[in-house]
Amino acid sequence: MIKVGLTGGIGSGKSTIAKVFRQLGIPIYEADIEARKLMETSSTIINALKARYGEDIYTDNKLNRVKLAEIIFNNNDELKHVNQIVHPVVREDFLQWSECQDADYVIEEAAILFESGSHSIMDLTIAVTAPENIRIERVMKRDNIDAKQVKARINNQLPEETKVAWSDFVINNDNEQLIIPQVVEIDKKIKEHGEIR
């Protein structure tokens, strides 16, 4: 099974791109959504978070996300620590999930594919890119926040040009170039890659 990582900075539109691949019949693993679920179902994560932050980080088996956000929001070391707990479990879950899929390849959509080290288990990677002003506009509309807050989030992520440089394929989602032909072309190339292997 060919494993493909799909990533892009905030507001680049990677979820939209993932939907197009899904329309082509490609199974999509949404890492951010699965991570949220695993934080309430994986005993490995639950026990590690309780050991670090106390039993009350969970109430009735539900993660106290507000409390956790307060802890990690302004503390990079704690954010790193939480990521070190969560990412290996998500990676393992993705690998198990991908074994159960019946397709030419599978995609993991992940905002922090490179930062989390998940790219290391991928055969190929795709970066979705868009000009910063468009990304800011999209996130302001989507999350109802101001440009300054969006900019702060962008600055917390790996620079887009780095993601592009490290990826095998790039999809330009700038509201000018059509995305479907770009996805179809990449789909074709990934399938050819599978035949070559």
- Give the SSE order as H and E letters: EHEHHEEHHEEHHHEH
CATH superfamily of the largest domain: P-loop containing nucleotide triphosphate hydrolases
SS summary, helix count: 9
Mean pLDDT: 94
Strand proportion, as a percent range, falls in 5-15%
Give keywords.
197 residues, alpha/beta, Rossmann fold, 2 domains, five-stranded parallel β-sheet, two-stranded antiparallel sheet, 9 helices, 7 strands
Give a topology summary.
Elements: E1 2-8, H1 14-23, E2 28-30, H2 31-41, H3 43-53, E3 58-59, E4 62-63, H4 65-73, H5 76-99, E5 105-109, E6 124-129, H6 132-143, H7 147-155, H8 160-166, E7 169-172, H9 179-196
Parallel strand pairs: 1-5, 1-6, 2-5, 6-7
Antiparallel strand pairs: 3-4
Helix pairs in contact: 2-5, 3-5
Description of the structure:
- The chain is an alpha/beta fold and 197 residues long.
- β3 and β4 form a beta hairpin.
- α2 packs across α5.
- The model has no long low-confidence stretch (mean pLDDT 94).
